[in-house]
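Checklist before submission:
- one chain only
- standard amino acids only
- sequence pasted in full

Submission:
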Amino acid sequence: MNSNENLGIGYLIVRVTTARGAIPLEGARVNVRSGVGSATEERGELLYSLVSDSSGNTERISLPAPPKGDSVVPNGGVPYASYHLEVFREGYYTHQYLGVPIFDGITAVQTADMIPKSESGKTGYDAPDEDLYFNTPPAENGL
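Returned file contents:
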């Protein structure tokens, strides 16, 4: 992105569910951070800390993104900004979403289908001991 005066604005809602998307999950915390990195790198500045409501959704937030016009100019750069999300709630595995794309003028909806931990800490499959990581690149060949 060139400068702050040439920024567009994109929007984000995080939908938190469980039971493979069948049940909205209220009270999950969602941290939105600038920039992207790998699972072991620094994720950037904390921009928002949100909580999902009874429908499982966070409030809609606005985030800086490159202006739409840059995407039609040759060598105009990447047409989206990337953000990192951390979704967590007690009793569930933490989900980390790396590279969530935000486009100017568009509301992105990122779904986080949380996996519950059992009393023994096992989920019935070979679950990880820690966080679950997801890379979320934008769709190829357009939107």
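Reviewer check: DSSP finds no helices and nine strands in the chain.
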